[in-house]
Automatic annotation (TrEMBL):
Coiled-coil regions, chain positions: none
Key word Signal present: yes
Protein name (database record): P-loop containing nucleoside triphosphate hydrolase protein
Keywords: Signal
InterPro entries xrefs: P-loop_NTPase, Sulfotransfer_4
Keyword Kinase: no
Superkingdom of the organism of origin: Eukaryota
Signal peptide bounds: 1-35
Amino acid sequence: MRPARSSSPAKRYARAALIPLLLSCLLLLAARLIAQPPSSLRPKIFVIGLSKTGTSSIGDALALLRYKRLGWKDIRSRHLVHTWANGDFRALINQTRYFDAFEDLPWPFMYQQMAEMYPDAKFVLSLRRDERVWLESMRRHVGRGSWQAYGYFYGATEVEGHEEVVVQSYRNHTENVRAYFRSRPERYAELVIDDGDKNWEVLCRMADCAGGRVPSIPFPKSNTAAHWQQGSVVGNLHVLWGWFVTRVEEMSAESYYKGGWAVVNGSLDVCWSLVSVIEQACSELYYKAMIATAEPLAFN
């Protein structure tokens, strides 16, 4: 009897590689099935204040009110910023199919399009108690690392030496928003994040609060300077990750929107599509887990 031939190393490697490939395909298919637009959403709320005006805190407050909220997602949001900056709103519009509350860049600069697209949507302009407080908060925030996109929104990529330009961007945005909603007061509210728990009253005029009552818990206070004061190792890793993601993002955007190689841009399209599906699925699972495990919110 002839001994059975052992399979060649190449075939063994091929079979070994096939298993993770199949698992990846199954996981991607599962993510695709999970990442479907919900059948119904509440009337949308857009938080249209600039960076460091408490947008994350307001987003957290809306999450407590069981809104399905889209805040800053490090990779997806950077992609949305660059699509917006290059006049392509399709990705942003697509995201509105999945969520009913939105905050952080670039949403503050989409209020006109969103107001026209969603006639029942409400808008909250978040502010600081004065320009000086906002500027100093921005100085600390921007000082953590340069980002090309700051120039799109604030006229400069850093605050130091450009204070008047940056402050003027805050003034212009506030004036433009107020002018637009002057004839639409029922859809608009202003909220000064420094006012603390009083902000529940403002938010509940726009949001769906139980019987118009306000929650009996403190208004969230998120993404403050204290949140960034981590241990040296964690802090340094955070800075390193931010630097790496920012540089990759800027190089990718430069290639994609300014005539880079077709093969590179095609690969970027595939990567962004995959990231979008995976993040969408994770957001959906997180939201369902939050709803399932959250304790009932008490109201005054």
